[in-house]
Amino acid sequence: MNASVQRARQLVLDLPHRAALGREDFLVSRSNAAAVAMIDRWPDWPHPILVLVGPQGAGKTHLAHVWRTRSRALMLSPPAPASASQSGDPDAADALAAGALKGGRPLVIEDIDRGLATLGERSLFHLLNLARERGAHMLMTARRMPAAWDVALADLASRLRALPVLRIDIADEMLMRTMLVKLFADRQLMVEPHVIDYLARHITGSPASAIRVVAAVDRAALAVKRKVSLGLAREALAELAEKAE
């Protein structure tokens, strides 16, 4: 990359792009169709408590927000132990969640497998019991299946293994193409199909990856005042790879 282009790119402001978290913004494919169908089916769930499992960036948070909006649920995000000291009081969060369930209000707990050490096993066991007793619905998101969580409390481990699990897998290539087209359209960028095909083949199959790539391509196009081309897409991917290293 020549020096003039590099200087131009340094002048581009890295403005935030608002994440769209509505149901109409969630793209459905074979990788997530079963989970989406169950969320759409609420409140007619086969069990009051469900676990939504999938890799980082697969869309768990988006789908949890869709359900939160639909059900008016309280959302709880217990921090991982390393960041717990910089976050709110876990006891206060537990009390807030328990109060919601006692009143019959639904509850979302995000990243429970990473935040369980902070929330506490007995607190989670108490919340599960409350949800069952009061008939309140509860949705937990996690990266790993409940059987793989590091749980010492035998009663809690048994209860978790019995919960229904919704899986979201890495997006297939068809979904990635659709996602890229939508993300570019959100930024008012029209991109040729061969560029979309190239990007879909060269990024990991997650919404988070697609969002990062589209943002990088948008910045590159703004910096050099050119439309999005295959060459520009290649340069943006190369830059992201360099930053990752």
Describe it:
There is one protein chain. The protein is of the alpha/beta class and 245 residues long. The protein has two domains: 32-167, P-loop containing nucleotide triphosphate hydrolases (Rossmann fold), CATH 3.40.50; 172-244, Orthogonal Bundle (Helicase, Ruva Protein, domain 3). Helix content is 53%, strand content 8%. It has eleven helices and five strands; from the N terminus they run H-H-E-H-E-H-E-H-H-E-H-E-H-H-H-H. The protein has a five-stranded parallel sheet with strand order 2-3-4-1-5, sandwiched between helices. The longest helix is centred in the C-terminal third of the chain and has 18 residues, at 207-224.
CATH superfamily of the largest domain: P-loop containing nucleotide triphosphate hydrolases
Strand order in the largest sheet: 2-3-4-1-5
Largest sheet: 5 strands, parallel
Mean pLDDT: 82
Distance between the termini: 18 Å
Estimated helix fraction = 40-55%
Strand content: 5-15%
Please write out the topology.
Blueprint (H helix, E strand, L loop, with lengths): L2 H8 L22 H9 L7 E5 L6 H12 L2 E3 L13 H13 L4 E3 L2 H8 L1 H14 L3 E5 L11 H8 L3 E3 L5 H14 L6 H10 L4 H18 L5 H15 L1
